[in-house]
């Protein structure tokens, strides 16, 4: 799980345009509250698919899935990424 | 070339009626029509009603051409959200020989795009876009911000369709509000309710609902759902033709999307990023809805509606 979360955090750092350092946030912290705009969440989504070589299900393309490191990890697990 | 989307049988019948009665003049390209007298009287009548309603708030007026600097389309991320709708202006670049070759191909109606190069211009996809950089260039805004009436100008969306309510070139009457977040949201919500009254006052069966923009692709689905879940966009919908009511006005809260691109700030301390909202009336769709509701013969429209529109 740690490795997956580390990689998720790397993607968010690069594409999420947060107004705070991702390292200061817990895994369940709200990324939108931390300054991630909708357009940035799209970049995070695409970068996650690249990084993990998966495709999110259509039903996962919604705001709540990209809300936190935890929610992203859960979605990645559901599409077959091993924790 | 974008795929042509045929209209439903009743949409196509309505289009034939509109052309037959002189409301629309066919150009040979779906979604691009001339407007006859009957059409323009109604369109301008409703446009004047919007002007009368907005003047109570003393907006500033800005008028822009139907072209937009390409740089602005790039800066606001339009090509990420709506690459399928964008129209870019190209122009010839070459010598005499190449001009002759181009002319020859054009004469035969073959592809003559070979010597065309991208210019600094695109067709304006939304009437409000030039307002944001214009306001940003003035520096920080005084408390309360600004309201800008961008008028009713032609905008372009590349989506050829047989539905007369889905035009490639149409007039969007847009008003923009820039200020503190709560000022902007309150304004957007008030105008949503006012617009419902405005449309009902001319006999339209108007209702309002949360909506989303037609963002492109899978990433677009995330954007659209995100927009809905945050209630950033409302539309007023009215029956025109086809199975679903059609959006004739929209009320959009952009949060800091445009202000962060152009650096629009409020004068003051702390977080001074301005927020923006816009409202847009689709003047052609409103005209079509009125014709659909009251008939092709304007002499037989209810007297109250005729009076409201100054017919």
Keyword list:
heterodimer; A: 83 residues; mainly alpha; Non-ribosomal Peptide Synthetase Peptidyl Carrier Protein, Chain A; B: 311 residues; alpha+beta; seven-stranded mixed sheet; three-stranded antiparallel sheet; 24% strand
Full CATH superfamily name of chain A: ACP-like
What is the count of distinct domains of chain A?
A: 1
Helix content of chain A: 40-55%
* CATH fold descriptor of chain A: Non-ribosomal Peptide Synthetase Peptidyl Carrier Protein, Chain A
Number of strands of chain B: 12
Radius of gyration of chain A from CA coordinates? 11 Å
Strand proportion of chain B = 15-25%
Strand content of chain A: under 5%
Report on the architecture of this protein.
The complex is a heterodimer of chains A (83) and B (311). Chain A is mainly α. Chain A has a single domain (2-78), classed as Non-ribosomal Peptide Synthetase Peptidyl Carrier Protein, Chain A (Orthogonal Bundle), CATH 1.10.1200.10. Helices cover 47% and strands 0% of the residues of chain A. Chain A contains 3 helices and no strands. Chain A has helices at 2-15, 38-52, 69-78. In chain A, helix 1 (2-15) crosses helix 2 (38-52) and helix 1 (2-15) packs across helix 3. The radius of gyration of chain A is 11 Å and the shape is globular. The mean pLDDT of chain A is 94. Chain B is α+β, with helices and mostly antiparallel strands. Chain B contains 11 helices and 12 strands. In chain B, strands 3-7-8-12-11-10-9 form a 7-stranded mixed beta sheet. Chain B has a 3-stranded antiparallel beta sheet with strand order 4-6-5. In chain B, helix 2 (37-55) packs across helix 10 (283-294). Chain B is globular. The relative contact order of chain B is 0.17. Classes of the chains: A mainly alpha (83), B alpha+beta (311). The A-B interface holds A 37-39, 41-42, 45-46, 58, 61-64, 66 and B 77, 80-81, 218-219, 221-223, 225-227, 229-230, 255-257, 260.
């Amino acid at each position: 799980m740690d490795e997956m979360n580390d990689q998720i955090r790397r993607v968010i750092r690069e594409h999420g345009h947060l107004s705070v350092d991702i390292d200061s946030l817990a895994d369940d912290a709200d990324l939108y509250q931390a300054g991630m705009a909708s357009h940035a969440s799209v970049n995070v989504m695409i970068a996650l698919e690249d990084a993990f070589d998966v495709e999110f299900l259509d039903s996962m393309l919604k705001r709540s899935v990209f809300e936190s490191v935890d929610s992203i990890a859960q979605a990645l697990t559901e599409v077959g990424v091993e924790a | 070339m974008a795929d042509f989307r045929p209209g439903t049988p009743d949409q196509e019948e309505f289009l034939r009626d509109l052309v037959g009665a002189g409301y629309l003049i066919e150009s040979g390209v779906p979604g691009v029509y001339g407007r006859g007298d009957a059409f323009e009287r109604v369109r301008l009548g409703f446009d004047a009603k919007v002007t009368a309603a907005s003047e109570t708030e003393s907006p500033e007026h800005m008028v822009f051409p139907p072209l937009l600097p390409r740089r602005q389309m790039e800066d606001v991320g339009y090509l990420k959200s709506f690459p399928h709708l964008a129209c870019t202006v190209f122009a010839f670049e070459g010598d005499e020989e190449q001009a002759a070759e181009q002319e020859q191909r054009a004469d035969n109606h073959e592809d003559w795009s070979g010597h065309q190069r991208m210019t600094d211009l695109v067709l304006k996809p939304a009437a409000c876009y030039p307002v944001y950089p214009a306001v940003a260039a003035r520096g920080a805004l005084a408390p309360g911000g600004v309201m800008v009436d961008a008028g009713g100008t032609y905008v372009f969306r590349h989506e050829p369709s047989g539905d007369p309510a889905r035009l490639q070139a149409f007039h969007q009457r847009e008003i923009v509000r820039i200020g503190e977040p709560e000022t902007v949201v309150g304004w957007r919500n008030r105008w949503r309710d006012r617009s419902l009254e405005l449309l009902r006052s001319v006999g339209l069966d108007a209702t309002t609902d949360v909506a989303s923009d037609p963002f492109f692709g899978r990433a677009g689905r995330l954007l659209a759902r995100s927009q809905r879940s945050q209630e950033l966009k409302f539309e007023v919908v009215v029956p025109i033709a086809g199975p679903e009511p059609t959006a004739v006005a929209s009320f959009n809260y952009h949060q800091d999307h445009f202000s962060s691109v152009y650096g629009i700030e409020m004068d003051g301390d702390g977080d001074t990023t301005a927020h923006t909202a816009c409202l847009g009336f689709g003047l052609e769709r409103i005209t079509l809805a009125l014709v659909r509701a009251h008939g092709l013969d304007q002499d037989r429209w209810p007297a109250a509606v005729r009076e409201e529109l100054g017919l």
